[in-house]
Amino acid sequence: MFSDPLLTDxxxxxxxxxxxxxxxPRVFFENAGGAxxxxxxxxxxxxxxxxxDNQGRDNPAAHALVAxxxxxxxxxxxFFGAGSGQFFVGESGTELTFRLLRAMILGARPGxxxxxxxxxxxxxxxxxxxxxxxxRDYIAVAHDDATGLVTAEAYAAQITADTAVATIxxxxxxxxxxxxxxxxxxxxxxxxxxxxxxxxxxxHASHGRIDIDSYDIDGYVISPYKVxxxxxxxxxxxxxxxxxxxxxxxxxxxxxxxxxxxxxTGAYATFSDVVGYFDWLGAQVSDASDRRxxxxxxxxxxxxxxxxxxxxxxxxxxxxxxxxxxxxxxxxGGVDNPAREGLVSFWRxxxxxxxxxxxxxxxxxxxxxxxxxxxSGNILDPLGQPSCIRVSMCHYNSLAEVxxxxxxxKDM
Length: 412
Prior knowledge:
Layout: H1 4-12, E1 19-20, E2 24-25, E3 27-28, H2 39-49, H3 60-80, E4 86-90, H4 93-107, E5 113-116, H5 121-133, E6 138-141, H6 152-158, E7 165-169, H7 181-191, E8 196-200, E9 219-222, E10 234-238, H8 240-243, H9 265-285, H10 291-315, E11 329-331, E12 343-348, H11 353-362, E13 365-366, E14 368-371, H12 377-380, E15 387-392, H13 399-411
Parallel strand pairs: 3-13, 5-6, 5-7, 7-8, 8-9
Antiparallel strand pairs: 1-2, 4-10, 9-10, 11-12, 12-15, 14-15
InterPro entries: Aminotrans_V_dom, PyrdxlP-dep_Trfase, PyrdxlP-dep_Trfase_major, PyrdxlP-dep_Trfase_small
Protein name: Selenocysteine lyase/Cysteine desulfurase
Organism: Marinovum algicola
């Protein structure tokens, strides 16, 4: 885990760490719904929101805006580990998911589209919608209900030589489990080398350790508000070969162009703040001299800290029992699942999840109810559960906050 002085320094870089402007003091365990925002992001958003100029003009302000965007795209390449391809922003991660899958499915060679039942409804809905429009078959690979995972072997059993498009979820926002992305992409490429592969990285991004060059994929999407930036934009990376498809665009405009209209420079600039934060954290936990190496070191340190918090939540800390030791509590995905990333979902037999979330909130502990609806039914329905409680942590959370949560659960 992070030392106490470093954790204090980390927490000082975020807004509203210990209190909500509407509720007052609280523990924030709702990070999968949207992480805390860096103070630097708040400052940068304010700065760029006040600038009246547009990009692409011949004046000092316009030149500065273009330079900020260029810097941000370079920062994105370093953060994501992408040595080629393009980055661009859109309305949201969900909007970009639909846009990329529309372009893939309408532009790919003939053949079926494949995805997995564990995925968020954004990628499942977009893939089914555009497969239907394009007259393609859609194949759903079943995930394992007990672990919350879909494996490379499960994909391999369904992939054929003519599979045209594949979708993969990097980490589930319901179970918190990370898929073995490199193994899945290798399984796809082994049978269908030219398949276009899309990855939903929205839940995974805040935990770091993204390495696009090693994945052999064609599209990756995140939502920056889940990785310490702000609402109002998403980020997509696309491979060079994906950009060579026939894309939507202005007639007579530049080819291989993904950006529509004037972009929000502040969106790009605030992600530079995110990358700068990972760079700073990496310098605190390693002696790496290379920026990419520091970012990877930060991701590893984040992973290790969150693993320690998760173990305490499941198995207890001090004299407080963990969730796995409380009577009637069932853990989604199993108790000791090495794929878990900073998130525990559970239910208690005989007690509605909404009551537990409300009771925790009354004690200043922010969690969330996931219902068996269009967002989470794919996970909860096979388990026979109408809902569960999601407790999502991030690296700025502390062991003391986990203890406060466990004390509240014990009292219940």
